[in-house]
TrEMBL record:
The keyword Repeat applies. The lineage of its organism: Eukaryota, Metazoa, Chordata, Craniata, Vertebrata. It comes from Ficedula albicollis. One of its GO terms (cellular component) is chromatin. Residues 1097-1290 are annotated as: Disordered. Residues 1201-1211 have a biased composition (Basic and acidic residues). Keywords: Cell cycle, Cell division, Mitosis, Nucleus, Repeat. This is PDS5 cohesin associated factor A. The keyword Nucleus applies. It is found in: Nucleus. Its main location: nucleus. The gene is PDS5A.
Length: 1290
């Protein structure tokens, strides 16, 4: 056989003689004996001979029988299996066989056979099965040549043959034989044009027609499409439209499979499918809005790869990601964040501002998992691009907002949010593992670049951590005391407080109790914890302590230890990981560099002045939380240097730092003391008001001989007071006020003469300068006259003086309250000489109202504040000036939320329902929610509070509110539907918040209170029928609202409510009041909320004047009460004479400015809105300007009705009472004929404040469209219309 093989190997096609000679041998070699020979080597030699025979006799084979040809080629195919073992001695012969077959294309002979497909399938399967990584390139090339010739020269590729190729692409086979996959890949690339129709037909059968039986590979179609696309997209030219069809399938799972496939096709790095096939791309994007959740989820996951591999498609994806970022499914919102953050971390340029905005929004998601992912993602971006500056300044600028946003989240109520912000701050914003200098530099410039709200949040964060440290310190102190029942109760309360500062407070309580037990048993653990919270603990020591405590509590047998995790949370919150003495020293050095101009301020993006001021503010905050860390001569020397700087804010902050940290200066640092004292004296006498305040407090806090020091300031200042130079009065008044408050025993008496002779008589009761009559209701701080600023400080001095004394033995508080009330009644113009400007009057009204509120915080003064004075104070929240309302509401909320003010003051918020500005109403509602939640929480946490329910339980505000509304000057006619509707709105403003939950059957309790009030009389005027009628009417409105809003109010009240005796008389035994004070028709009108009927111009606004008795005339009271009231009565006539000129001078009754919203207590600088042109246009055109809720033309006959009403009210009250117009409500129009009469006739006076205009949708915002009144049809024929224009301009 070897000889035969050699013979045929050497023979070529041209030797015809030899061909004839060896023909019988060739035929003999195809006999069954050779084809089925048991010897493997013989079979190999025969196969080589047969291959050569096909080569020699080509193109015609010597075998004519089709069956014989089939047997021969199947025999040769079987021999090709020997290619598998490259180390076999016979491998070269197998290779020769393959090479011969490939070169001659011998298998092409089979095309003539009917069942040639069986041969080809067997050949392809054999070749794909034998190929392995030991084969060289030549073996692969010959295999490819052999198979590609069959594919390309045949009539088509059958499904079975296609399967034999494609099966090598599915993942399972691909992983088993990588070389077979590579071979199939190259084969498909080589035959793409020929095989593409066959592939298209296969996918058409499976995808479109659903004939899965056509192939065993039907279940792998999507895997195959992915692999084919990766090999050559042209293989799928006809398949892609079929995928678009599948994307719209009704079967969610099928859509999911197609989406997964297309996600890979569109997202792969080198794919240009999205640009090549836009219809398919758009159809795929539509799946982002699929109804099937897994489909949307898969679409979102794809976006990450797409953003990273195809940034050009970001624009297409943005809109869809926006919608998905609001998806109802938590997992999808979560994955949108992961998608954007992953791309952003790869390269910030891959995500646009809009995409980052979606993540920003999700930091406020309702689900914790989503919020956490968004916050952590943003924190990682900030650290990468801002702290490490990995992509330059532009990238850092792009994400510079992140620090502010993350800190703003600290305002959220959730403890989880707060804890995560603290963790982010410690790990990402100012990494605690940095070296001290680097860490402080990071904190220094971070603080300087934060926005005001973020600064407040950061300050609050330190404050909360410090508070928790103090709780733990108090807990450790309790451990040192002997065991007792009181000690155990105190310890339990402390543990509950600590648990509230940890995640999941319910579970935390158990863990905290367990930790407390461990502390009690383990003295070493206690000492470690004491070291951790000691003021002298350094950051490095804190790190060691935390690790040591965690090690002691760890349980090796318990890999997940919730108890240990909770303790770690606690330790992380109380450990001083950022601030210690070394850190403060580093901060001070940084600030010194900024002062010297050698710091990198500009490079860090802040100006030196900003850096210095922010640095001092930072140190000031830290001086509250870490005062011990400041105690070094070096630090205090730097602060003394700041005191000498011209920047007032810097000096003020430096004084405050001394005040907070300087307790040991006197004993330990005498040199600093001797330098500091004259500076503080100078600041107290001639510094800014804020500096003076801090200087006085600093002296009081850190010096043992404070009485001597304060006297050295008090005496020269009290002697040098001069009202003729008001600009030099402000600082002395501040200093004197604070001195008298801090040292009342020493200075209360000398201050009394200062108050009587100078403050009241010389300063407050005199107007030395004339204010600017510009019509503005508010002016920026720098435009306020020095005299008015001095008067404001004088009012504050009175309050501080009284707060220092804390008693009313000298009746000074009564006199002060009468003075403040008179100021409110006179609308800020106490002297009533009309010399003071409107904006200055607003300042003084605010000061007077705030002063009464401040005095009410002291129990001894609260008792003597009369209901009338309380009502006057309450009306400030409805002042005509937006800023007065805003600042007063903020002060009110601040005092209530700290439980400093009595509960009745919360009723004032009910009047906010009348505020024309939406933002103010919203703010008031938030204040109510906060106050009510704090009071309820306080009652829960303090068992002793049950004894004080009358002053704490929020529901007890209802009687105060009813009484206040009954005495609202706007409520003059108990049966007037419009006035009742206003009362109902005020009641519901409060009741809506109170009735959110029916805690302890509170609805029935409030109903019972309202019913009980009807069984009493108004203690303010018990014998006056109209006052009592108004009170009962408001009760009926309240009952109407409660009954309509709650089905639970008819249950029995859990307890009988107690009514405040200051406002209501005791119920009389025989008194029964079952009368309904509002008719059924009125009740329906109030509840249906139908709009008010269109009124005439005369009824657009509520009445300016209200009939009734003169306020402040009390049958019982102090001796001086009548004299004050008589002064008010006699002076009211002067006001009436100048009334019309003053009103016309001011123009429209509205702020002529649109101020920036004031955040702090002190009004911020405002910028005017350019609406002066509008006002001048109104005047020029003669259009009537009405700032009420409605603007309608006056109907005929209304003037007469109004005239009669006015005449009647004059007759009732008599001519002896001076005229006093209710400011803030535009005057009702009157016929010309009645004008002179009304000027001559005195109107009844009205308590309170000029109220806000009724249509201020934004502060001071007056639009031309709203300003115009309806056209006057015929001004020549209607003189009354012209008169109305004049009235409206007042």
């Amino acid at each position: 056989m070897m000889m035969v093989v050699k013979t045929f190997m050497d023979m070529d096609q041209d030797s015809e003689d030899e061909k004839q000679q060896y023909l019988p041998l060739a035929l003999h070699l195809a006999s069954e004996f050779f084809l089925r020979n048991p010897n493997k080597d013989v079979r190999l030699l025969v196969a080589c001979c047969l291959a050569d025979i096909f080569r020699i006799y080509a193109p015609e084979a010597p075998y004519t029988s089709h069956d014989k040809l089939k047997d021969i080629f199947l025999f040769i195919t079987r021999q090709l299996k020997g290619l598998e073992d490259t180390k076999s001695p016979q491998f070269n012969r197998y290779f020769y066989l393959l090479e011969n077959l490939a070169w001659v294309k011998s298998y092409n002979i089979c095309f003539e056979l009917e069942d040639c497909n069986d041969i080809f399938i067997q050949l392809f399967r054999t070749l794909f099965s034998v190929i392995n990584n030991s084969h060289n390139q030549k073996v692969q090339m010959h295999m490819l040549d052999l198979m590609s010739s069959i594919i390309m020269e045949g009539d088509g590729v059958t499904q079975e043959l296609l399967d034999s190729i494609l099966i090598n692409l599915i993942p399972a086979h691909k992983n088993l034989n990588k070389q077979a996959f590579d071979l199939a890949k190259v084969l498909l690339k080589r035959t793409v044009q020929t095989i593409e129709p066959c592939i298209a037909n296969f996918f058409n059968q499976v995808l479109v027609l659903g004939k899965s039986s056509v192939s065993d590979l039907s279940e792998h179609v999507f895997d195959l499409i992915q692999e084919l696309f990766a090999i050559d997209p042209h293989l799928l030219l006809s398949v892609m439209p079929q995928l678009e069809f599948k994307l719209k399938s009704n079967d969610g799972e099928e859509r999911l499979a197609v989406v997964r496939l297309l996600a890979k096709l569109f997202g792969s790095k080198d794919s240009d499918l999205a640009t090549q096939n836009r219809p398919l791309w758009q159809c795929f994007l539509g799946r982002f809005n699929d109804i099937h959740v897994p489909v949307r989820l898969e679409s979102v996951k794809f976006a990450s790869h797409c953003l990273m591999n195809h940034p050009d498609l970001a624009k297409d994806l943005t809109e869809y990601l926006k919608v998905r970022s609001h998806d109802p499914e938590e997992a999808i919102r979560h994955d949108v964040i992961v998608t954007i953050i992953t791309a952003g971390k790869r390269d910030l340029s891959l995500v646009n501002d809009q995409l980052l905005g979606f993540v920003r929004e999700r930091t406020l998601d309702k689900r914790w998992r989503v919020r956490k992912e968004a916050m952590m993602g943003l924190a990682q971006l900030y650290k990468k691009y801002c702290l490490h500056a990995e992509a330059g300044k532009d990238a850092a600028e792009k994400v510079s907002w992140i620090k502010d946003k993350l800190l703003h989240i600290y305002y959220q109520n959730s403890i989880d949010d707060k804890l995560l912000v603290e963790k982010i701050f410690a790990q990402y914003l100012v990494p605690h593992n940095l070296e001290t200098e680097e860490r402080m530099k990071c904190l220094y410039y971070l603080y300087a670049s934060l926005d005001p709200n973020a600064v407040k949040a950061l300050n609050e964060m330190w404050k909360c951590q410090n508070m928790l440290r103090s709780h733990v310190r108090e807990l450790l102190d309790l451990h040192k005391q002997p065991t007792s029942e009181a000690n155990s109760a105190a310890m339990f309360g402390k543990l509950m407080t600590i648990a509230k500062n940890l995640p999941d407070p319910g579970k935390a309580q158990d863990f905290v109790k367990k930790f407390n037990q461990v502390l009690g048993d383990d003295e070493k653990l206690r000492s470690q914890l004491e070291l951790l919270i000691s003021p002298t603990c350094s950051c490095k020591q804190a790190d060691v302590c935390v690790r040591e405590i965690a090690r002691k509590l760890a349980n090796p047998k318990q890999p997940t230890n919730p108890f240990l995790e909770m303790v770690k949370f606690l330790l992380e919150r109380i450990a001083p990981v950022h601030i210690d003495s070394e850190a403060i020293s580093a901060l001070v050095k940084l600030m010194n560099k900024s002062i010297e101009g050698t710091a990198d301020d500009e490079e860090e993006g802040v100006s030196p002045d900003t850096a210095i001021r922010a640095g001092l503010e930072l140190l000031k905050v830290l001086s509250f939380t870490h005062p011990t860390s400041f105690h070094s001569a070096e630090t205090y020397e730097s602060l003394l240097q700041c005191l000498r700087m011209e920047d007032d804010k810097v000096a003020e902050a430096a004084i405050q730092i001394f005040r907070n940290t300087g307790h040991k200066i006197e004993t330990d640092l005498p040199q600093i003391r001797s330098t500091l004292i004259p500076i503080l004296h100078q600041k107290a006498k001639r510094g800014t008001p804020h500096q003076a305040k801090q200087a006085v407090h600093c002296i009081h806090a850190i010096f043992s001989n404070k009485e001597v020091q304060l006297a050295q300031i008090f005496e020269p200042l009290s002697r040098s007071l001069n009202a003729d130079v008001p600009e030099q009065l402000i600082t002395p008044l501040v200093s004197l006020g604070h001195i008298s408050m801090l040292a009342p025993d020493q200075f209360a008496s000398p201050m009394k003469s200062v108050v009587a002779n100078f403050i009241v008589k010389d300063l407050l009761m005199n107007d030395r300068s004339t204010g600017e009559k510009n019509g503005k209701l508010w002016s920026p701080d720098e435009e306020v006259s020095p005299e008015v600023l001095a008067k404001v400080q004088a009012i504050k001095l009175l309050v501080r003086w009284l707060l220092g004394m804390k008693n009313n033995q000298s009746k000074s508080a009564n006199s002060t309250l009468r003075l403040l009330s008179a100021m409110l009644v006179s609308e800020g113009d106490l002297t009533e000489q009309k010399r003071i400007s409107k904006s200055d009057m607003s300042r003084l009204r605010l000061a007077a109202g705030s002063a009464i509120m401040k005095l009410a915080q002291e129990p001894c003064y609260h008792e003597i504040i009369t209901p009338e004075q309380f009502q006057l104070c309450a009306l400030v929240i409805n002042d005509e000036c937006y800023q007065v309302r805003q600042i007063f509401a903020q002060k009110l909320h601040k005092a209530l939320v700290k439980l400093l003010l009595p509960l009745e003051y919360m009723a004032i918020f009910a009047l906010c329902a009348k505020d024309p500005v939406k933002e103010r109403r919203a703010h008031a509602r938030q204040c109510l929610l906060k106050n009510i939640s704090i009071r309820r929480e306080y009652i829960k946490q303090n068992p002793m509070a049950n004894e004080k329910l009358l002053s704490l339980l929020p529901e007890y505000v209802v009687p105060y509110m009813i009484h206040l509304l009954a005495h609202d000057p706007d409520f003059t006619k108990p049966q007037d539907v419009d006035q009742l509707r206003d009362v109902k709105e005020c009641l519901w403003f409060m009741l809506e918040v109170l009735m959110t939950k029916n805690e302890n059957n509170s609805h029935a309790f409030m109903k019972k209170m309202s019913e009980n009030i009807k069984l009493t009389r108004d203690a303010q005027s018990p014998d006056e029928p109209k006052a009592n009628e108004k009170l009962y009417t408001v009760c009926d409105v309240a009952l109407c609202v409660i009954n309509s809003k709650s089905a639970l109010c008819n249950a029995d009240s859990p307890k009988d409510p107690v009514l405040p005796t200051k406002f209501f008389t005791q119920p009389e035994k025989d008194f029964c009041n079952d009368r309904n004070y509002i008719s059924e028709e009125t009740r329906v009108l109030l509840l249906t909320g139908k709009p008010k009927p269109t009124g005439v111009l005369g009824t657009v606004n509520k009445p300016l004047s209200a009939t009734g008795r003169r306020p402040y005339i009390r049958t019982t009271g102090s001796e001086t009460g009548s004299s004050v009231n008589s002064e008010l009565s006699s002076s009211a006539g002067n006001r009436s004479r100048e009334q019309s000129s003053d009103i016309s001078e001011t123009g429209v009754s509205e702020n002529d400015e649109n101020p920036v919203r004031i955040i702090s207590v002190t009004p911020a600088k405002t910028e005017p809105v350019k609406n002066k042109e509008i006002n001048s246009d109104q005047t020029t055109q003669g259009n009537s300007t009405e700032r009420g809720k409605k603007r309608t033309a006056t109907a005929s006959g209304t003037e007469n009705i109004h005239q009669k009403t006015e005449e009647k009210s004059v007759e009732e009250t008599g001519p002896s009472l001076a005229a006093k117009t209710r400011r803030g409500r535009p005057t009702k129009p009157e016929p010309q004929g009645t004008t002179a009469k009304n000027e001559e006739t005195n109107k009844p006076p009205v308590r309170g404040r000029k109220r806000a205009a009724a249509n201020q949708e934004s502060p001071g915002n007056l639009e031309a469209g709203n300003a115009k009144a309806p056209k006057q049809q015929d001004t020549a024929k209607k003189p009354a219309a012209a008169q109305r224009q004049i009235d409206l301009q007042r």
